[in-house]
Amino acid sequence: MKIAADVLVALVAALHLYFLVLEMFLWTAPRTRAAFGTTEDFANASKALAANQGLYNGFLVAGLVYGLIASSLAFQVFFLICVIVAGLYGAATASRRILLVQALPGAVALAAVLIAR
Hints:
about 85% helix; single chain; 6 helices; mainly alpha
């Protein structure tokens, strides 16, 4: 079960690395705008805000990866809870889709981590 938990944590980290790339580097690209449902004007106006958001996703990635490398239950649990809380907040304030894309994978990984220990 530990291997499955580690794989799920790694997948959540990879997902947030993908979010980082979208928000920091590809925010104004047509595919990214379509994925987030934004216009070109909005994407250009919010580019700095999106990059900041992407940076926070990078911190989540760093914490999750460190938790895997150090085999730290505390780091994995803390950063997965951060992922879930961010997903719940995003679902409540921006789009319910975030619940499925961010909070649910984080919750599944957290359950696996807790069961595996």
